Amino acid sequence: MAARECREEQDRKYNTYDQAVDIVSCWEAFLNHSYNQVFEDYYFDRFPSLDADGDEVTPDFAVTVNDEYGLIGEIKRTFPEEETPFRRTLEQLERYDEPDELQCSPSETLRPNTCDILLLISGTSAPKIGMRIQRLIDDGDLDLNRNLVVVRYQYNTRDQLSRYEFQRVIPVEDEFRDGALRDEHALSHHMGEEADYQTLPLYPKYFKREKVKKPICNDKPPEQYLATILWHKIFPQYLTSSDYEQWQSGSAQKTIEIKATPTEITDELNNYMHDGEARVNWVRDALHFLKDANLAEQLSDEFKIKFRGFVRNVGDSNDQEGTAELNQLETLGETFIQRYCEYTTSESEDVSNF
Amino acid sequence: MYGLGAGESLFAYEGLSMENVRRAVDVFVDEGSRSKVRFKSVVCEDDPIEALRHTSLKLDSTTIEIEDQEDHFSVDVTKVIERDDLEDGQRVVKSDFAFFQIGDSNIWTAVTGHRPDEFEHGPLWVLKKSEPVISNFFASSEDLRTVLRRFKDTFPSGTEIIAKKTVAYSRDDEGEISWKTRPFEEIFQMAEEEDNYIDKMRFVVRTDSDVRVDAFLSRNGKLKFINGDASRFFDDLLSIFADVGQQKADLFGNKERSEETGDVNEIDISFEKSHFTDPPDNQKLIKALDELSNSNITVYHNNPYAHVSVFDNVDGSSCDVFITGPKEVSIVPSYRGSFNSLMRVAEQISRELEEGEIIENSQEDYTMGDFFNA
């Protein structure tokens, strides 16, 4: 793969994943506001790992509202065109028919009487996909006891305040079965037929807190995405004040070595998220990505991260080595992707300036 | 002592106190038109003297000696500048300054009569090198206007404040604009109408034809006393200016994410103008943050809304910055989010986009119904 194609592919994965984090954060913020003060057992599980007849299933999120109602949430951005792969994609949701125990706190579980599957699909071809899903249900090709509530998401930039919008996909008839909740707390009452399938708008100002607190979701993050989070939020925790002083007194590009195992870094990341459940293999792969970008080395199980500031402008006394070389707007994510692609693709370009 | 010329004789006879520093300043400025007294006000979140002592240990080229004078500290700085183009390959800059706390606030001020070179390589150098415990704060144009209004109110009616020279900046081409003598209110009005921000101003306070105070103030906390009644400057202007710093300390201090609960705080900036009406407008914020010194950014989302993470190399602080509306930016500090770092980020946005209103956002509660009616 050529370096340019590599960069485009990495960029695409980075942006797609960020949108998934947004969607989960939207629902976490929306449901936290709606239920936190109302139901004692309400819990939004951002990293569910549920038992399905002895197998582990990992939907994008799971929600215990109370002992009456729960949700298992899954995000699907794209669907295959061909019928067989399309059906197989949907059949995967059958696994979400099984788990009946959901977290109602970080350490406790509960079995809600009713649980539905919430499928969030991208807005562009949602009506068509909805028709196809309903046909599978009608033909008995999708064997679900739980209701499959399909909601489409899209970003609306037409109005002054851009926002994500969520709306029930009407061709799919299944409704939220949350009738045990009072109308004011029921999704069916606000988004279902009785509300004329009202649109749920979610503005960045509502979900930003959730996104900052937990910058990843229950899917494996692309390595370059997780690498930026580690670089900005986790690796600095390994530095001492004297490391920062060295940056201030010496070169802004000075490399500071951090040694840690993937497990240790995963623990730090999960502490950062407060009850985060990032997997060790996600972090290990991100460290390998940094290794490929020549920003880390592997020493048996431990990694040595070559941490540095990537600072272009050191301020008043701009006389530090290396700063003039970084002379155009380049964000950390772009820098990582560029380095990775230059080092790992056949059409290597000159990277000596980094 | 403190570069105060003839004024220093007071110290020999009457002791080294802030009262005598003030009197020495009076004597010093009377010596001639070139005698100016320079001040630098800073925010100190922790013990600044400890921070200066630590700075002394870590700087190879600079010696800092500190002496407790009961109501202030005297700080003696010797800095060796080594450069090939200098005669003998180096030069030595010696200076000293009085460093004192304003009331019981977080604001400390350095004062010296030394010339600009000594001021830069003395107090400014060691205070800068003591970041983040000692931190710059930035007064907005509106803050500066408020300072002058409040200062004017301490004088009898009929007193006016005339801006003798003002330096402002426009955002379009980053050009410097100078305005000559005008009543200060007119200057601020002009700046507002032309979307400029005031950087510094020399002004005189006059009652009838008497010059009460001739001074200079700036958004980065540097002040000068040039002539007039030093008591007015010390007792009134410095205190009023310190209130601005304290407001910033209250706004940007202790806003880190809670280690215990994981909860976050938010600081919102509201602008008058709609800066972000289309996704390409997001680049204005991204570019502004990218140009912040001693930091790097990563962009998680830039279309259609913007989400940028900023990492501050000064002390490892980080924050997430969001565009939350056409006129709104929100800053969410991480577990490490020092005053120094947040002040720098907010100032960068103010200078590059607009000096918006900055407020702490206390999270509101919404019901499910509220979301559908938003």
Molecular structure report:
The complex is a heterodimer of chains A (about 350) and B (about 375). Chain A has about 350 residues and is α+β, with helices and mostly antiparallel strands. Chain A folds into two domains: about 5-215; about 225-345, no CATH class. Chain A is about 35% helix and about 20% strand. Chain A contains ten helices and 14 strands. Chain A has helices spanning about 5-35, 85-90, 125-140, 185-190, 205-215, 225-235, 240-250, 260-275, 280-290, 330-345, and strands spanning about 45, 50, 55, 60-65, 70-75, 100-105, 110, 115-120, 150-155, 165-170, 200, 255-260, 295-300, 300-305. In chain A, a hairpin with a 4-residue loop joins β4 (about 60-65) and β5 (about 70-75). In chain A, α1 packs across α5, α1 runs antiparallel to α10 and α6 (about 225-235) crosses α9. The longest helix of chain A has about 35 residues, at about 5-35. Chain A is globular, with a radius of gyration of 23 Å. In chain B, a hairpin with a 2-residue loop joins β10 (about 195-205) and β11 (about 210-220). With about 375 residues, chain B is an alpha+beta fold. Chain B is globular, with a radius of gyration of 22 Å. Chain B has helices spanning about 10-15, 20-30, 50-60, 115-130, 140-155, 185-195, 230-250, 280-290, 340-350, 370; strands at about 35-45, 60-70, 75-80, 90-100, 105-110, 135, 160-170, 175-180, 180-185, 195-205, 210-220, 220-230, 265-270, 295-300, 305-310, 320-325, 330-335, 355-360. Chain B has three domains: about 5-135, Alpha-D-Glucose-1,6-Bisphosphate, Chain A, domain 4 (2-Layer Sandwich), CATH 3.30.530; about 140-250, no CATH class; about 265-360, Double Stranded RNA Binding Domain, CATH 3.30.160. In chain B, the strands form two sheets. In chain B, strands 1, 2, 3, 4, 5, 6, 7, 8, 9, 10, 11 and 12 form a twelve-stranded antiparallel sheet that branches. A six-stranded antiparallel sheet of chain B has the order 14-15-16-17-13-18, with helices on one face. Chain B has ten helices and 18 strands. The interface between A and B is large, with 64 and 62 residues.
